[in-house]
Design a protein that fits this description.
- The complex is a heterodimer of chains A (about 210) and B (about 425).
- Chain A is an alpha/beta fold.
- Helices cover about 30% and strands about 25% of the residues of chain A.
- The longest helix of chain A is centred in the C-terminal third of the chain and has 18 residues.
- Chain B is globular and about 70 Å long.
Chain lengths: ~210, ~425
Amino acid sequence: MAAQGKKEHLYKILVIGDLGTGKTSIIKRYVHQFFSPHYRATIGVDFALKVLNWDNSTTIRLQLWDIAGQERFGNMTRVYYKEAVGAFVVFDVTRLSTFEAVQMWKADLDNKVLLPNGKAIPAVLLANKCDLASEGFLGNINQLDDYCREKGFHAWFETSAKENIGIEEAARSLVAKILENDETIDHPQPDGDGIRVGEEDGRAPKKTKCC
Amino acid sequence: MQNGMETAKYTRGRSREGELPKGRSLESRNTAAPLAAAPEMASRRAWLEDFRHMLSSEAIDFERLRTRCFQGCPDGEGIRATCWKILLGYLPPDTSSWEAVLESKRALYHQLVKETIINPHEDEESDSGEVVDHPLNPNPESSWNRFFVDNQVLLQIDHDTRRLYPDLSFFQQPTPYPRASYSAGMEALKKRVERSSLPSQRVGTTRMGIINMKSTAKYSSLEKYYLPLKEGEEAHWEVVERILFVHAKCNKGIGYVQGMNEVIGPLYYVFFQHPDVRWKEHAEADTSFCFSALMAEIGDVFTKKLDSAHLGIGGAMRSLMQLLKDKDPVLSKNFVKKGVEPQFFGFRWITLLLSQEFLLPELMRIWDSLFADANRFDFLLYMCCSMIISVREKLIAGDFAEAVKLLQHYPPLDIHKLLCNAEEIRRFHPLKKR
């Protein structure tokens, strides 16, 4: 149990993007500090947990939802996205088509899940497999900055699950944004007793649990 | 257990705790269940002999074979491969016709390979030597255009088959029967994707105006993790890749759906284990037809358009949850309370016929029963329900995350108990005609 006054948050984060962009590898790297090129294709959804000691008074439990990339699974995403508070949208820098699909994924996300205040959930763009990138693909950083602003991404990072580049930073950036949202969103108080209690059955994706 | 030998080989020390809910109605009732306990050493011989006898008779008693297979096929002598081919309707019960049937089917497959893995260059020149087709031909019917569209599909298949059964070295090993050895001019599909994907990427411009991509990007880092094959060699995964590509080309309506690779993998593996070299050599063709037969039955769950329909995956998941509700209302309520949805686990279980949930030797035993099910594939749902109930205590005790994790990473339990419980569910809570 958390120490007196320690806050514990439970956040559901989606990892989406075209098939074969490395979503599973990113999660495995982030959660298990491990890379293998041998992951099977994700069918439906897979799910991992990561606990962060954010600061002395905050523990964060991340539920990372690894969503299958093929278009066939599109009908399932509504139930997978439910109650998510943040997302990584992943593309593969060696395959342009996966970048072109980014805006489709972002639109799908904004269309199917919103924060309690009606705003889009924060999304961070990951340019994955940067260890394989030819020079020049991400040459014009300003343009990708502009792209993110226009498409409503909170930030973007070059990542490599293989070389362990950028993933921690990207996660920190997304979590910081989620925390910020959490503090500004006015949570409805249950029954006016003024104390938020984590739901007993641990029903997933909840915003904040205060102990 | 009939799978004892192979199981030991693959489980690598995974514990096999037999977890069963205590005090529930699931403990084995000692009635004469059709799923009798696996034969012990003494009766093993008789059991094997029975299969040998059944398969060598001129006209196989299909119902009897089905009943026997439901209880599990023997591993050796290619018996399982033969039984699956019969159960899937590829081989007729009349054994005297097998040779002719196999010959014509295998010839047909080679023809399909020839027709579908086309090289558009062949049509490039007309008889007069005039160039009639070219890569920039805007006609959607042009073979060059077809070639590019096909490559999009091939790219997906290539991606998924390269990572087929990563814990098993089999699919990375070279087949002794590479296609090139009997089809001159056959180009490896993987090469076609390597060549076609990168240069074509340079052509596009993004809305960001990034156009200066260089062609030096490496295609994939995967290759170097495997032992390189010699020129002319072909890994087993490439055989699977070809079967899937031919299937996608011949079934444009459904095309290639992720997960088909997981369904085809065990079929090919089992067929390739046949001791007869001719059956081994033609494992590719045989797998292709059996996979098609299987898809004819389970294709609906792969079809996005049918997702919410009765026949699609949505209907199957609803049936599973109804079964759970009938069999274990407490657990069913607990799922609802926690927000555990069948889409989080049942989607994969059902679509892939459990192929990602068990190790291959155990899966083969499960598929014996699935294929031998008279109401294919109802038994799959009973099995899924049995799997859920077998870990009910942990599911109830855990929170949402623990429950979903447990279902997504199903523990290695005793297969025989799971099957027996599934059989019991079938007897006491039969599904209404779906």
